[in-house]
Design a protein that fits this description.
The protein is an alpha/beta fold and 490 residues long. Strands 3-2-1-4-5-6-7 form a seven-stranded mixed sheet, sandwiched between helices. It has 21 helices and seven strands. It starts with 17 loop residues before the first strand and ends with a helix. Helix 1 packs parallel to helix 6. The radius of gyration is 26 Å and the shape is globular.
Length: 490
């Protein structure tokens, strides 16, 4: 593939080094990030007014080349062309990719930076490869602020395409705590978007667990939102240090100016979702990977949205919520911290198990330690905790799962008494804590000597002759249930 100097401002005058089409918030901010770092950026949007607004409002930040049409956009780029698509996933992305494919030439690089489904990315990559075009499915995490100031980037593509893009991506990515850029070549075709999907699934779980901790501290320990904010800030100074914990404290400490009430009390309790969490659960089922913590987080959001069903069930009987004595509340708060940390470990462990399984299934050869490293900055799930995940996989690259790491196993063992108390207290108090409970059930399932799946195998064989394995010999077996029962009665 032809190469060119990707250093800032190296292109001849009037030639853009990279293009961005789709100038909603994420696309606009990514284009600004590129321009701020010295790249000459061609910009295009289906609605030309948005292109003009970007140049008018932010033209002082760098060199923008506005394009009225996709043909103008492609013509403005130096060869090999590098072009980022930032439009809605699904049919809109297909439409843009198909249009651009007719204008690009062999050796050009087309980058989808949206939240595409990884299967769509694999399909598009195969189609573009047949035309000699490099297609990159790149996960972008960090929201609008990350896109502008430095996101975590997860490109999935060929080695050749990554080699050409790496200098540019490393320049615009966030800087991790050790100074390295928050970007890594994840793997081929759909690997980048797959890892971004799992990232979002873990994000769902992390947010749900923090919300459950808040709910328990509010309705069992009797703490106010402002007091819980102070507790979360304390936790954020320790092993639970994370962006999500930080912003949660800010939300809980915020007072609604219109009513003077805590902000969290005037917000409608229906949580939205854009689909990536649901994709994670659906894909996990297809891969046969248990992600119960992520699934419960997705279902909790779904339950919150069924307002008519919730209204109809609001009068159902259950335990009265009573607040703990202050001394007991202080002890319970410490137990909730233990349960939150342990459940968080489980959620991340499930996510990494899913990534490893998909990597083996699709031949992606994803480095699990690299995933943890690039999420340490820019991403929504950025946390000090990720350093320890990276270290675990550095010590043992073939680690079967996070709970197989001695350090994490020891911490979970230490936390489990408090964890069980919190789950039991939630049940006795009638406070839903599906994330905590599902994480504990997963932990107990992994450590069990025997699971009741043996009985399920017997049930399946009884009604469907599905056969079963035995512990004392190899092979598949079937019991003649009616005949054996008759013989035993005789």
């Amino acid at each position: 593939m032809p190469t060119s100097d990707l250093s800032p401002l190296a292109a001849p005058p009037g030639t853009a080094q990279i293009g961005v089409t789709g100038l909603a918030v994420m696309g606009r901010n990514l284009a600004r990030n590129l321009a701020r770092n010295g790249y000459r950026v061609a910009v295009h949007n289906r609605t030309a007014a948005r292109t003009r607004a970007l140049v008018d409002d932010f033209g002082h930040e760098g060199a923008f080349v506005p394009a009225e049409s996709t043909a103008d956009l492609v013509a403005s780029l130096e060869r090999p062309r590098r072009l980022v698509v930032m439009v809605q996933a699904g049919a809109p992305t297909d439409a843009v990719v198909d249009e651009l494919a007719g204008l690009l030439e062999p050796g050009d690089i087309l980058i989808d930076g949206g939240n595409a489904h990884y299967d769509d990315t694999r399909r598009r990559e195969q189609a573009m490869r047949a035309q000699g075009i490099h297609f990159v499915g790149m996960g972008v995490s960090g929201g609008e602020e990350g896109a502008l100031h430095g996101p975590s980037l997860m490109p999935g593509c060929s080695d050749e395409a990554y080699a050409a893009l790496a200098p540019l991506l490393e320049t615009i990515a966030a800087d991790t705590p050790d100074g390295t850029p928050a970007v890594a070549h994840i793997g081929a075709d759909g690997a980048g978007h797959f890892v971004k999907m799992v990232h979002n699934g873990i994000e769902y779980a992390d947010m749900q667990l923090i919300a459950e901790a808040y709910d328990l501290l509010r309705h069992v320990a009797g703490a106010s939102p402002a007091a819980i904010a102070r507790t979360f800030r304390t936790w954020n100074a320790g092993r639970l240090d994370s962006y999500l914990m930080q912003i949660t404290a800010e939300v809980l400490d915020h007072t609604d100016t219109a009513t003077g009430r805590p902000f969290v009390d005037i917000v409608d309790d229906r949580a939205g979702q854009k689909g990536t969490g649901r994709w994670t659960v659906q894909t996990a089922l297809e891969l046969g990977v248990p992600v119960s913590g992520i699934a419960e987080a997705v279902f909790a959001r779904t339950v919150s949205g069924h307002t008519a069903l919730r209204e109809a069930a609001r009068g159902l009987p259950g335990p009265a919520r009573t607040e703990l004595h202050p001394h007991d509340a202080e002890r319970f708060t410490a137990q909730v911290e233990q349960a939150l940390y342990a459940s968080k470990v489980i959620a991340y462990a499930q996510g990494w198990h899913m990534i490893r399984t998909a990597s083996q299934a699709y031949g992606w050869e994803i480095d699990p330690g690299a995933v943890a490293r690039i999420w340490r900055a820019g991403s929504i799930v950025r946390a000090a905790f990720l350093d320890r995940i990276a270290d675990a996989y550095c010590r043992e690259p073939a680690l079967a799962g996070l709970l197989a790491d001695k350090t994490f196993a020891a911490e979970i063992s230490e936390a489990q008494s408090a964890w069980r108390t919190v789950v039991a207290t939630a049940a006795r108090s009638g406070v839903p804590a599906p994330g905590f409970a599902a994480a504990l059930a997963y932990y107990d399932a992994l450590r069990a000597d025997r699971l009741p799946a043996a009985l399920i195998q017997g049930q399946r064989d009884f009604f469907g002759a599905h056969t079963y394995g035995r512990t004392d010999r190899e092979g598949a077996f079937h019991t003649r249930w009616a005949e054996d029962r008759a013989e035993q009665r005789a």
